[in-house]
């Protein structure tokens, strides 16, 4: 049995740029400050992880629960507004590739995203990647990407795997995969890695990386 996990933004959906903009805007809406798009300066590159660090830096920890609730509401609202009036594209070949994996008896699939669950499902649906049966672990579950991936593995439902592979597009995806001993495949050209695909039209290459 092979476990295959997927990040979402930039990995399955062409949403990295507008997602970043919506997140920055939501922070500004609630906290009145601008944060740059360089996520690599944060220890936990997830929605809740970045927000938690921003709150700590501002010395607002005592009000963190209210702030988190308001930022999340603003962010989800902004993503909803965006997808309602813009076309959201899947990474080429993503739907077909997921369909292939889901149909196989020897593969368990799950989503493991640093985004919040509500916005993650919204973006998947907007891009036509409608797999409601695929479990999703997200920043709504934990601030740590490593813990999100561990949860996704448990949600996938099989305790023993011949291989565990994570498809991602950021250096934080690669780092988390290395920490967990996952086989990492980079998607697109944002980072370089020994195993990479341009998109899922290179399905044969992707399957070979998984070990299929």
What secondary-structure arrangement, pairings included, does this model have?
Layout: E1 2-6, H1 16-31, H2 47-57, H3 64-85, H4 94-103, E2 107-112, H5 117-126, E3 136-137, H6 145-156, E4 163-168, H7 171-180, E5 183-187, E6 196-197, H8 203-210
Parallel strand pairs: 1-2, 1-4, 2-3, 4-5, 5-6
Helix pairs in contact: 1-3, 2-3, 3-5, 6-7
Structure write-up:
With 212 residues, the protein is an alpha/beta fold. 47% of the residues lie in helices and 12% in strands. The chain has eight helices and six strands. The chain is globular and about 50 Å long. The model has no long low-confidence stretch (mean pLDDT 94). The N and C termini lie close together (10 Å). The longest helix has 22 residues, at 64-85. Keywords: Hydrolase. GO terms for molecular function: hydrolase activity. InterPro entries: HAD-like_sf, HAD_2, HAD_sf, PGP-like_dom2.
């Amino acid at each position: 049995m092979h476990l295959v996990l997927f990040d979402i933004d930039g990995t399955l959906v062409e949403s990295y740029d507008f997602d970043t903009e919506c997140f920055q805007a939501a922070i500004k809406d609630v906290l009145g400050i601008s944060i740059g798009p360089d996520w690599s300066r944060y220890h936990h590159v997830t929605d809740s992880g970045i927000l938690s660090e921003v709150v700590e830096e501002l010395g607002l920890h005592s009000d963190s629960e209210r702030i988190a609730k308001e930022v999340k509401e603003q962010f989800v609202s902004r993503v909803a507004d965006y997808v309602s009036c813009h076309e959201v594209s899947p990474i080429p070949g993503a739907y077909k590739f997921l369909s292939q994996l889901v149909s196989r008896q020897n593969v368990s699939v799950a989503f493991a995203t640093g985004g919040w669950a509500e916005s993650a499902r919204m973006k998947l649906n907007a891009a036509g990647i409608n797999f409601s049966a695929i479990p999703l672990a997200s920043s709504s579950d934990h601030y740590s990407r490593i813990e999100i991936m561990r949860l996704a593995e448990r949600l996938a439902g099989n305790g023993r795997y011949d291989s565990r592979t994570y498809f991602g597009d950021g250096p934080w995806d690669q780092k988390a995969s290395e920490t967990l001993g996952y086989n990492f495949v980079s998607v697109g050209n944002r980072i370089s890695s020994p195993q990479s695909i341009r998109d899922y039209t290179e399905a044969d290459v992707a399957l070979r990386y998984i070990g299929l």
